From TrEMBL:
This is ROK family protein. PANTHER family: BIFUNCTIONAL UDP-N-ACETYLGLUCOSAMINE 2-EPIMERASE_N-ACETYLMANNOSAMINE KINASE, ROK (REPRESSOR, ORF, KINASE) FAMILY. Belongs to the ROK (NagC/XylR) family. It comes from the Bacteria. InterPro entries: ATPase_NBD, ROK. It holds the Pfam family ROK.
Length: 293
């Protein structure tokens, strides 16, 4: 289960990582923390029942949430778009179902899914960058997602335009404030997919906005390439639905400015907005199979 600010994405994942069933529900975040937690518990219970009705045996549960997550203690500490503050979500789910449960970070879980089963599966060092309302990143090396001291991956808050627009974090010129789908929509006064379509059709104003966003994203990726040296950069999230309209100019901007650094593959994610759901399913499988404590 991947609990987002708008939707909860759910799946039954078997021991091979195949999704046997998928569904999604509105989160209802405005109803408050108790209502959201009650919905999570209700959905996991229903999914476990569905599995048993299909002759399957539920073995473990994985729940992913955004924001600041204590994966060791299983606590959802803070999320800007969810009313979860210091909620011991792992224990609540585990007690509700009496099954081993893991709590993961949505982007890091998504990176794991893309690295093991998706666009990055043939690389050993991959950077996963979902671009939607915000921008984040997960660096996967040797099959493990690096977490730093616990909160690595806030790629959207790398400053790429010091004199640029204000960011929700309180800073100025963050990548997320310039190149996210939300930032593009704010500047254009229309949804980001419409900006992409108009730019492709030759609208000069839309083309300028799109070009600025792509260049800012490339600046951020060049910094990541210098610091982390990934073999592949996998772009996901809602903006990746633009396909080659995003990938081709980003590749051009990055490759034109590389000097001695490795030339990374720049790829589109395989699992769209369901990467986090699948990834936390893989974490749950790891727990069941004894690969994590």
């Amino acid at each position: 289960m991947d609990v987002g600010g708008t939707h909860i994405k759910c799946a039954l994942v078997d021991a091979r990582g195949d999704r046997r069933h998928r569904e999604r529900h509105p989160t209802g975040a405005k109803r408050g923390p108790q209502a959201v937690v009650a919905m999570i518990l209700d959905i996991v219970g229903t999914l476990a029942g569905r599995a048993r009705a299909q002759g399957l045996v539920p073995r473990a549960v994985g729940v992913a949430v955004p924001g600041v997550v204590d994966e060791v203690e299983g606590v959802a500490q803070y999320a800007a778009n969810l009313p979860l503050r210091d909620v011991p979500l792992r224990n609540l789910v585990a007690e509700h179902l009496e099954l081993p449960t893991v709590l993961g970070h949505d982007v890091r879980a998504g990176g794991l899914a893309e690295a093991r089963l998706g666009a990055g599966q043939h690389t050993s060092h991959m950077l996963f960058v979902p671009i939607g309302t915000g921008i984040a990143a997960a660096y996967v090396t040797g099959g493990a997602v690096l977490t730093g001291a616990g909160a690595a991956g806030e790629f959207g808050h790398v400053v790429v335009r010091p004199a640029g627009p204000g960011c929700a974090c309180g800073g100025r010129g963050c990548l997320e404030a310039v190149a996210s789908a939300a930032a593009i929509a704010r500047r254009a006064g229309m949804p980001a997919p419409e900006v992409v379509a108009r730019a492709a059709a030759g609208d000069p104003a839309a083309a300028d906005i799109w070009r600025d966003a792509v260049r800012a994203l490339a600046d951020g990726l060049l910094t990541a390439q210098a610091l982390l040296d990934p073999e592949a950069i996998v772009l996901g999230g809602g903006l990746s639905q633009a396909g080659d309209a995003l990938l081709e100019p980003v590749r051009t901007e990055v490759l034109d400015r590389l000097t001695f650094h490795r030339e990374p593959q720049i790829l589109r994610a395989s699992f769209g907005d369901e990467a986090g759901c699948l990834g936390v399913g893989l974490l749950a499988l790891d727990r069941w199979q004894g690969r994590t404590e």
